[in-house]
Amino acid sequence: MRTYLPLLFCATLYGSNFVLSSLLLQAFPALHLSAYRLMVSSAFLLIYLVATRGMTKITFRDSVYLVPFVLIGMLLHQVSFFTGLRTTDATTASLILSLAPIFTALFARLFLKEPLTKRMAAGSIVALAGVFFVVGPGGSMGTITEGVWIMFICMLALSGSMILMKKLTERMDAFVATVYTTVLGCISVYPVAVWSEPHVQVEPHFWWWVLLLGSALLIQGLCAVIWNAQIRKVGAAKASLFLNLQPFVAMILGYITLDTPISLTQAAGSVLIICGVVLATVRGQRTRKTQDDKLKFSPVER
């Protein structure tokens, strides 16, 4: 529980990120919003790293995973996330990204040799059915828009980044890896924002800046540190299963803050997604406890 509760905390804040980002897009251009948030989180993490631990030298072998992570997990993920949210509502976007555990488990099996248990596979299938219930033929969306495809790209980038982070944290401290990837992500996103959205004059209200600052510190700062540390403990595939809880959080907050209607198919899809998380995690833990008990009372000891 000491491992799963932090993941649950992060998944809740990640779910709120869809709604908060949708709100912030009313005041900021998409890629500039991404760059500003990365600037805030980078400054916070970098100051904390220098004050507590000091800078760590990056070796060439570290950069083998660090550079691909920045390109995939930061640049591609950030650009596709905020671009997709411009034409996709927060609930649908969160449902699409809840597919990440399935692809993360597949990538983890291929590249990390992590086990793909039957319960984990069954839970992923149930969660996938919940997403398909909403975005598939006959779902509440009706047709698959360009924004949906962009969010699919974002989901694949997220899955790949968790694999790369798992490899990166095997070579360096999780917090140090988080700081360096965030700072390098800011350096990579800002030029793209300036190039794609030139001559932007941002003059939002004071409280928009407060919301941006708070979301950057909590979601892209604190949650990134916690999440990357837990990936090292439980593995990329199992940690990613908690991302399935994002749609439920996004749906409730979207209804409260954005007046986004909740359709019957979205509600049913969320139920399937939550059931998939429970099937893949809670029952898996019970099984492991039973196996430990069998080892504890083995015939040799008796």
Automatic annotation (TrEMBL):
Alphabetic keyword roster: Cell membrane, Membrane, Transmembrane, Transmembrane helix
Domain of life from the UniProt record: Bacteria
Pfam annotation, one family: EamA
Membrane-spanning intervals of the chain: 7-28, 34-51, 63-85, 91-112, 119-136, 148-165, 174-194, 206-227, 239-258, 264-282
Positions of the EamA domain: 5-135, 147-281
Localisation per UniProt entry: Cell membrane
Membrane topology: Multi-pass membrane protein
GO cellular component: plasma membrane
Family per record: Belongs to the EamA transporter family.
Protein name: Permease
